[in-house]
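Hi everyone,

Forwarding the result from last night's run.
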Amino acid sequence: MTHSNTSPRFAGFGRDLLASLVVFLVALPLCMGIAIASGAPPALGLVTGVIGGLVVGAIAGSPLQVSGPAAGMAVLVYELVQAHGLAMLGVVGLMAGAIQFLAGALKLGQWFRAISPSVIQGMLAGIGVLIFASQFHVMLDDVPRSGGLANLMFIPEAIGKAITPIGMSQHHLAAFIGVATILAILGWNKFRPAGLKMVPGPLIGVLVGSGLAAALGFAIKKVSVPSDLGQALNIPTLDGLLQGAMNPEILALGAIFAFVASAETLLCATAVDQMHTGPRTKYDQELRAQGVGNLLCGALGALPMTGVIVRSSANVQAGGQTRLSAILHGAWLLLTVAALPWLLNHIPTSALAAILVYTGYKLLNIAQIRRIGRFGKMELAIYGITLAGVVFVDLLTGVLAGFALATIKLVYTFSHLQITTKIDAGQRRADLVLKGSATFFSIPQFSAALEAIPAGLETHVHVEHLDYIDHACLDALAAWEKQYQAGGGTLIVEWTELAQRYSRRSAQVKDIPVGAVK
């Protein structure tokens, strides 16, 4: 009896343990690579990964979601570091964490999901393009340019440095390692043995890249992780906090970090819920947990964190059952940084950059573009405007442009009414067919169409093709009916199909003015 009670628990622990190792192997290279892409030391990405596992994993509202540094935040962090220095990273992180925690306490978690998927996908695709463009230069041991457009424009020049057959420069060697890393990832993803499905492609890429660089003795840039992690911390000073609190630009960045991190986290949590049948996400709890995590990251000057879909999906696919898998992955990261920093220092920067080049390409999801296209050209336009704004201006401008276009589409949808009038004088009948949404915006058009109907006819108003009709239009129809009946006409509202769609709500039945109802 005792055995039957404890065995499932032990089996569950075993699955969590295996999942934690898989997530750790995915997270290790990405924590360092995202830090480098953010213009920060690799150790600060590892600190964020540790906090995301040990702290946020223990209190998260989405038990199987894994948090840590995310590619989606790398562009924002890079721009912050370039404009204000690494010292302001912790200050902005503290602000973002406080905003997230407050938003969770005020139960605003669900509202962060109220963003058009086309805007979110456009934002992620734009970030993917920026990461691809900047890390392409790093992969060749070249220097990233000042902005997204410049990085894209100078890719041919960087390729030229790597293939120009004049000696074997550092660019040639780094390019060889970068390409080998990407080929290893692609080959592993396609041909990995059935028994090793849980071993992640990025880990294989790092092992191949690092092994080749060591075996061939390539003198290229390597990762630098201090033997004492405390030496790498970037703790904000009191002066820095005061300067940040007085700087409107820093305050704005804190709000932007909080918004982007929250949107990415909660969308990731929604996706994770679709991957398993366990407990559903508690969005406000998740938002508070992310706030605590980013407050700690900010206090230590580490990278900001979000829920990360790559790590989270690896956790679910590896059989993670509870939050223990996320917590343990943080413990493995901490153990590696504490015990094996010398091993991390053998990893070429070009290998980590190659992983992010691959990640950036994957963020530009062609299948997702096709999926959005099924919902119409306007959704594609929202996606495209967001992507272009992120790449060619900045992330906030891109998101705001996409959100504005999505809002315009919403207003158009709820204000556009198509009216077709058919008059059959012989049958003394008129048919008025309404399509779209009949709202107070449409009253001038609706009233004009009604008033144009000749007197004394049997008028049928077809509302079954409407997406929505509001009380203002119903009142206008009722007022017109009284006048029309006084002139000898009758009104029949063809609303049966509409009523079926809305489950024949009694309030609607009462509100619809009818001389006769079919």
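Residues 2-37 form the longest helix (36 residues).

Cheers,
N.
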